[in-house]
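Re-run with default settings, no changes from the original entry. Doing this only to confirm the output is reproducible before filing.
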Amino acid sequence: MAKSSDGDYQLVSVSDLKQRPEHRPETQPPISLNPTRVPPELRNLIPLAERWGYPDDTVRDILIESASRDELLELKARVRAADELLDEWLAGPEACSDNPSLEYVVFSAMRMAADAISD
């Protein structure tokens, strides 16, 4: 489902959705995270989160489809290596927040991107 300009929803194919400008990676504003809002032990992942952590599933899918296998394997390996630390943060108190930080949302989306990559 996609929202039309008049506010109604319409059923569209995934391929049509991927062609819409609002779902294209190149039309997205760059993500810029505040390191002080990220646990210190995860700050080394900020560049990956800023690249892969788009909350829009379609944008993430396009990024994954257009990436090299080496880029995808690096993302998956680095996220997997930080799994326990990510669990501590992402399953912590902010998980219940009605207004999670941008950093929390972006790191969650980065993890979803990594989880979508097959071995």
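The chain has a mean pLDDT of 90. The helical segments are 14-19, 46-52, 57-66, 69-81, 83-90, 102-115.
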